[in-house]
Amino acid sequence: MSDEENDLVLADLDDGELVEQMMDDLYDGMKPEIEEAVGILLERKWTPYDILTKALVSGMQIVGDDFRDGILFVPEVLRAAQAMKGGMSILKPLLIETGAPKMGKMVIGTVKGDIHDIGKNLVAMMMEGAGFEIIDLGINTEASEYIETAEREGADIIGMSALLTTTMPYMKTVIENLKDQGLRDKYIVLCGGAPLNEEFGRAIGADAYCDDAAIAVETAKRMIQERLNPA
Amino acid sequence: MIPADTDLRDTGLAPIGAGRTLVIACGALAREIIALIDMNGLTHLTLTCLPAILHNDPRKIPQAIENAVYKHKEDYDEILIAYGDCGTGGQLQSLCDRLGVTMIDAPHCYAFFDGTKTFAQRGEVTSFYLTDFLARQFDAFVWEPLGLARYPDLRDAYFGNYETLVYLAQTENADLTAKARDAAERLGLGFERRYTSFGDLEPFLTTGSGS
Question: How far lies A166's CA from each of A15, A34, A114, A170, A204, in Å?
Fold first, then answer.
């Protein structure tokens, strides 16, 4: 980093420059700078929703694109996600107060027998950034936890994640449980995880396999719209 | 001659041996397979290895194996694939079925070293595993690709849900045990050493049967 960048005072930047700088800082995983910039934009009377969508989500989309293209790797994406999380933790209570647009509600978790949650956490964060309310069940999630929570919370989407070849078949168990209870068509069921693919998603009866967090957001938005406006 | 770990990691191993059955193996298994060939007089086997680093992007494994099978199939009577599923989500098994070659019926080398049935029965959800090869190559396969040298604060994001590092030892080697114990400390995990020897790898090579 140059001396000039070291001396950068975020508060001296105009709005456009600051948003651009936030995207750079997000890309570089600079959490304190993101938190500071969010505070500055709030002082300038930006709405929490605009800060979220125009700076954080837009910046994270660049990170996601570069990950997909092999330019960024997992550590950098994680750092960016941590920076975004820092900004979101400031914005989240304000978003609730100011009534930001709601896209739908998603219950998400890593399936039973599996403790890997990096991908699941990324999806949850990006879905939240896109306006979905997230109920995160964490790791090692039983079918009953997915279904009972979705029922109790009035969710639209059930999202399942797995990293292991040995745990991914449990997704089918969850879907079979939904069918047994006559609830399968009530929910959009999305699945994701490194060893999965579209063929697996179809085979277990999920509505879609999502290759990454950005695709999960796009897919969820499209499917929610299709439910609201059936052809 | 024992191949260098760095070669096994990055480039693999050209065929060694004069047997009519070719074993296409992960580079991480080369030393163990060579030892088993020597111990059991398995002169009908020839060994070649793909780079072990493929495991850091398992989606590349099936294509690499398919390429190797097509490259060598005219030169051998039979081909064995010394891989488990290795994070390919069933793609490797589908490929082997299509090509008519036998692979090891196990999710990964941790399982077949421990004994695939035993491993499944243990149900160790919160354990992270190393083998002899991975104890030697911990930095190349874990520490560096996860960016932990640059960003030590990411450790808990990766390993916060784990409790124990289980070192599945193929050999009695105090230096490797020390390396594995050090890896556990660096990851902030408890440590357990479990001597497995070669597990299900031995019957796979001696019988040519996947399960």
Answer: 49, 39, 9, 8, 15
